[in-house]
Amino acid sequence: MPASARVRRAKREDPRSGLTAARQLANQVFSRASGAHLREGNSVRLLKDAAENYPAWLAAIAAARQTIHFEMYIIHEDEQGRLFADALLRKAAEGVQVRLLYDWMGGFGAASRAFWNSLRAGGISVRCYNPPRLDQPLGWVSRDHRKVLVIDGTIAFVTGLCVGRMWAGDPAANRQPWRDTGVEVRGPAVSDIAEAFAEAWATCGEPLPDSGAPPAEAQPAAGDVAARVVATVPNTAGLFRVDQLVAAMARYTLWLTDAYYAGTTSYVQALRAAVADGVDVRLLVPGVSDVPVVSALSRAGYRPLIEAGVRVFEWNGPMLHAKTAVADERWARVGSTNLNLASWMGNRELDLIVENQPFARQMQEMFLHDLANATEVVLHARSRARAPSAPKGRRDLLTSGGGSRGRVAAGAMRIGSTVSAAITNRRVLDSIEANVPVIAGLGLAALAALAFAFPRGFAYPVAAIAAYVAAALLYRGVALYRERRRQGVPSPPPVRRQEETHAKEPTIP
How far is CA 440 from CA 248, 430, 444, in A? Predict the structure, then answer.
């Protein structure tokens, strides 16, 4: 037997190699599911709330020497937004290349055109992601929900925080800050974050000459933390597959914090299966939300979780905006993705997945600390989910100008999924979802009655919408046709159908 074959056989027979092989297999599975490589040699610092995140961001901006890349879903034109604007303008005046990418829907009503123009006038390159366009009637539905800051290609911040006074709070007005989580990253994973920014930047105009960071393989090590950057784009569902895998592979604990929970049936089933296998599954969500309809949708999904043994907790303080997970004291996630279809399927999101025991323990300790300010949701004697002794008037703790407007889309998608299932019978509906098809049915019945009573009032808007969509499609088609002619791409040859010949079967008497 050749020596190499004997070595391979010895490794297979060595029981100590089983753990290594299992980890290699797990790494392969996670890499393929997420589309993200595992990077060794990183330093990851956990940052809690704006009190730790904002100062770290501003210090990194102040120390920048070459590039600042800021991808932020919402920047509010308030004292916090102006604080960051002034910091970025100072660096631009020093000759640092400052590029800022914000989301159109997130920024709608949060900052004025004059605010963005003042940044441009100060030398900052500002781009808006996915504003409404004539040739894409529903294109604006896809959002850039990321919250990322990259400095000189060597340090990066991945977070759930946007920029605004609601995250910072106002002690003078007795307004507590929103609860949120972020991380500071150094090492090879920064290159992946920089590449994700460059890809998003290119969707809004001319691409960057480079990402501003060396390749991950050339990035010097900064610690001993293994991490992967999951930068999802619409319709890729990379993190959704990862979340499903984590629920399937967790052995002891799976603790989740989410701002706008609206879990799909498949994800709920994954959590229920984990509990049935002895995993301690806990979900921490806001007690009150800046968008009440999403809070109601979240509560509509409590019962199947609680009945299966998932422990659900509602945060007692002001808005809980964090999106984190920790499993088995070994695996953790921090980023922008919520546990709903809009985040999993519709948005650009970015999360850092950390495979490091000390960091995971920090995340677990933070989760337990948060539970000390939360109320566990239990089933009432009449089998209705409720939070016993829930504080009254918690809505007053919220400030206006909410965080992620895309959670409304998540609620709409959840309702649409339930209504579709009720009509097509493609999946089994949970009893807690009974109110959705009933309300939808009553709404459609009322709409039908109004249409019969006032046919013109419905025909004209429908005709106007159809005309707009038709114009958009024609505009898009003509633009693509002109682009094809400009590039000199020949038209595809006509396809000729050949008549099929069939051998005549013999007649059997």
Answer: 34, 16, 6
Contact between residue 299 and residue 306 where contact means Cβ atoms under 8 Å apart? no
Using CA atoms, how far apart are residues 458 and 6, in angstroms rounded to an integer?
78
Kindly give the residue spans of alpha helices, DSSP state H, lying in 63-188.
79-93, 104-107, 113-121, 165-168
* 103, 192, 328, 370: the active-site residue: 328
Low-confidence ranges of the chain (pLDDT < 50): 4-17, 383-384, 387-414, 417-430, 432-433, 495, 497-509
Annotated catalytic residue: which of 152, 258, 290, 370? 152
Do the Cβ atoms of 44 and 184 come closer than 8 Å? yes
Could you give the 3-state DSSP secondary structure of residue 282? strand
Task: Exactly one of 69, 76, 147, 258 is catalytic; name it.
Answer: 147
How far apart are alpha carbons 315 and 393 in whole angstroms? 13
Sign, CA torsion 447/450/451/456: negative
Q: Do the beta carbons of residue 223 and residue 243 sit within 8 Å?
A: no
48 flagged as catalytic: no
Q: Can 504 be counted among the known catalytic residues?
A: no
| Residue where the block lists tokens 């650009």 | 348
Q: Is 328 a catalytic residue?
A: yes
Cβ–Cβ under 8 Å, residues 143 and 105: yes
Euclidean distance between CA atoms 187 and 216, whole angstroms = 8
Q: Is position 323 annotated as part of the catalytic site?
A: yes
Q: Does the pTM of the predicted model rise above 0.70? A: yes
pLDDT in tens, 287-314: 988 777 777 777 888 889 999 999 999 9
Residues 77 and 401: their CA atoms lie apart, in Å, by 11
* Known catalytic residue at 76: no
**Does the annotation mark 290 as catalytic?**
no
What lies within 8 Å, CB to CB, of 469 at 6+ separation is: 137
